[in-house]
Amino acid sequence: VEAGLCTKDFISEQPLSPIEYAYYQECKEYYNLTGQPIISVASEVFDDSIELPTSSLKICIDEDHNHFDLQQFLTKFCDKINVLPKDIIIKQIQVGSIVCDAEIFHDCESSDKKISIKMICQLITDKFREEFGKMKIFFMFLGSSKTLSKQQKYRADIKINPQYNRIYARGHTYWRGALNDRRDRGNQPYYCPVGWKRCAFYVTDNFYEKFKGWCICYHGTKFACGLSILLSGLKPANKAVHGVGIYASPSITYTSHPRYAEVKRINSSSQSKFFKSGKYVQFVLECRVHPSNIIKIDKETLAAGNTTIDFNIENKIIEWVIDNQNKSI
Gene3D superfamilies per the record (predicted)? Predict the structure, then answer.
């Protein structure tokens, strides 16, 4: 980044594609709800078997480009991520909100690029996200631009699918014991998530054929992370008690513990666009995982002792560690 960079010198006439625009609008909604940006890092950064010839840096800022001071912003941004200004090359700025397209660590070898990006990842905490939020950053991506495009296309393909919404309770959808409806859900039982409402997404045509043999599990999350996960995927646990991986459970009772699934009261005007003001919600994701990706099944980590958490599932087999496919954020 050279001294005296001017925003107008980088303004591009190329508009965002409809898929990009929709993706960034969802990221902005997340930012408006939480005050924090979505930060995504391409999985190839953490895969030593894949080269990283170029490393893109995409930053979306909730500001009018007519009043945006590029030089001032980048100076502050570089200070936050401990990067020298010369390590960032601005390529273009697309307008609406500001979408800044850049390349980072241009002069580094692939392995050095990855090390440098991993060092940035070490800085990413809730406090770090809050600081970026104050800078009006609502999205940041590091990695291959092709990976970001795939991520955006994948998200665009996920739609609300009310046909498969369910209320799990007597008088609605309900069963006792492990479900036996002759559908192949892998080698793990599926119990009724009593008391929960499922809001379904369209994932693919012929869902039951494509996911035949895949097990059902749950992942509890904070309110602020719900949309982030849908936009950029699950990440490995920070506290890997049973080893590195994504943590899930066949028990919705276990994953809905407030340690995992935050109990959130909805009371702001922006949140009431999605939920009735004054109501309490929890987010638990129902996931499918191929049995070969369950790398460990182990005991609970709530220190429950002899207390039975879920009458269907023993405490000693209530946590699953899922292969994270080299992804760490």
Answer: 3.90.228.10
